[in-house]
C-alpha cells in the first residue's frame, strides 16, 4: 500500500530531475508552443468533415451531417484510383529511395580521400535545394523526344527512333521515383553518415587485424552500427506512406498520364477544395491521418516483435 512517506521521495526525485534539466526544458518550450499552435489547434477544424460547411455561416452554425462525406468518399471510384496510385508510388519510393540513401552513405563512408568525399557530398546535397518546378523541367527536357536520353539511346542502337517517355502511363511511377531519388538521395544520406561517424574506429581496426575485407566490415560493423537509425527512419517512413504530396505528380504529369498521376493529395485539392467542397476535402485529410497512425503503430509493433527498438 502506498503511503505519503513512500511517495514523497519519488516526488522529490522527480522535481530534482526537472530542476537538473531546467535549461533543456526551457529550450523545448518554443517548440512545444509551435506544435500546439500549428499542429494541434488546427485539428479543431476536423469538425467540418461532419458538417455541410458553408463559409458564410460561420463555424458553429453549420448543418451537421454525420458521416455523409466519408460515405461519399468511399463510394467514389476516383478515390480508389487515387489511393492505389498513392500506395504504389509510396512503396516504390520507400523501397528504392530508402535503400539508395543507405547505399550512397555506405559508399561515401568507404571513401578514403577526405577532399573527394566532401566534394561528392556537396554535389549530392545540391538537388535537395532545387525546387520541384526546376527538377520537373530538367527531367522533362532530359526525357523529351529531342532530349539527350533519346539521343544516346538512338546513337547506341538501343532504340531505332526516339521514344516519348513522358506520355507512357506505365512509366510514370518510375519517372517520379527516379526524380525523387536524384533530388533527395544525397540529402537523406546525411543522417546515415552521422550514425556511421559514431561507430568506434577500433572495431574497424580489430576487423582489419582479423583479416576482414571491406564488404565484411560493412556487413558486420557498419550496418549493425546504424541499425537503430535505419529502423527508426523506416518506421517513420512507413507511417508517412500515404502522405506523398502532389508536387511531383502535378509537375511531371500531363493529360495522357493523368490517371496514373492522381494521388490522394491532388484528389483532395481537385475534388475537395477545388470544387469548394471543404467538408469533403477535410474527410480525405482525416482518412489520411487515420491510415498514417495505424501504419505507424503496426510498423512500430512489428519492429518490437522482431527484437528491434520501438520509437514509442
Kindly estimate the percentage of residues that lie in beta strands according to DSSP. Answer: under 5%
Query: What low-confidence regions span 5 or more consecutive residues with pLDDT below 50?
Result: none
Quaternary state reads single chain
Number of helices: 15
Mean of residue pLDDT values: 90
Radius of gyration, whole Å:
25 Å
Describe this structure in words.
- This protein has about 300 residues and is mainly alpha-helical.
- About 70% of the residues lie in helices and about 0% in strands.
- It has 15 helices and no strands.
- The protein has helices at about 5-20, 20-40, 70-75, 75-110, 115-125, 130-140, 150-155, 170-195, 200-210, 215-225, 225-240, 245-250, 260, 265-270, 280-305.
- α5 (about 115-125) crosses α8.
- The longest helix has about 35 residues, at about 75-110.
- It is flat.
- It starts with a helix and ends in a 7-residue tail after the last helix.
Structure summarized in a few sentences:
The chain is mainly alpha-helical and 312 residues long. It is 70% helix and 0% strand.
Task: For the structure shown, list the relevant keywords.
mainly alpha, 0% strand, 312 residues, flat
Amino acid at each position: 500500500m502506498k503511503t505519503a512517506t513512500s511517495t514523497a521521495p519519488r516526488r522529490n526525485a522527480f522535481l530534482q530531475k526537472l530542476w537538473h534539466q531546467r535549461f533543456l526544458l526551457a529550450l523545448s518550450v518554443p517548440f512545444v508552443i509551435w506544435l500546439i499552435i500549428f499542429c494541434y489547434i488546427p485539428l479543431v477544424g476536423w469538425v467540418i468533415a461532419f458538417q455541410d460547411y458553408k463559409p458564410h455561416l460561420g463555424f458553429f452554425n453549420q448543418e451537421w451531417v454525420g458521416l455523409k462525406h466519408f460515405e461519399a468518399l468511399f463510394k467514389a471510384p476516383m478515390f480508389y484510383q487515387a489511393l492505389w496510385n498513392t500506395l504504389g508510388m509510396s512503396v516504390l519510393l520507400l523501397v528504392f529511395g530508402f535503400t539508395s540513401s543507405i547505399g550512397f552513405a555506405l559508399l561515401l563512408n568507404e571513401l578514403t580521400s577526405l577532399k573527394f568525399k566532401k566534394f561528392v557530398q556537396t554535389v549530392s546535397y545540391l538537388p535537395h535545394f532545387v525546387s520541384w518546378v526546376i527538377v520537373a523541367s530538367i527531367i522533362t527536357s532530359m526525357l523529351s523526344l529531342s532530349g539527350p536520353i533519346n539521343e544516346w539511346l538512338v546513337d547506341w542502337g538501343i532504340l531505332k527512333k526516339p521514344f516519348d517517355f513522358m506520355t507512357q502511363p506505365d512509366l510514370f511511377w518510375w519517372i517520379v521515383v527516379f526524380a525523387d531519388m536524384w533530388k533527395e538521395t544525397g540529402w537523406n544520406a546525411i543522417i546515415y553518415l552521422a550514425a556511421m561517424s559514431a561507430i568506434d574506429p577500433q572495431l574497424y581496426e580489430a576487423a582489419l587485424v582479423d583479416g576482414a575485407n571491406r564488404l565484411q566490415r560493412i556487413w558486420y560493423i557498419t550496418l549493425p552500427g546504424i541499425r537503430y537509425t535505419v529502423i527508426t527512419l523506416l518506421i517513420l517512413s512507413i507511417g508517412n506512406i500515404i502522405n506523398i504530396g502532389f508536387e511531383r505528380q502535378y509537375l511531371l504529369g500531363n493529360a495522357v498520364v493523368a490517371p496514373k498521376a492522381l494521388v490522394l493529395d491532388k484528389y483532395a485539392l481537385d475534388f475537395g477544395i477545388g470544387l469548394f467542397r471543404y467538408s469533403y476535402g477535410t474527410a480525405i485529410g482525416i482518412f489520411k491521418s487515420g491510415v498514417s497512425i495505424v501504419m505507424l503503430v503496426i510498423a512500430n509493433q512489428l519492429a518490437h516483435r522482431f527484437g528491434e527498438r520501438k520509437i514509442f
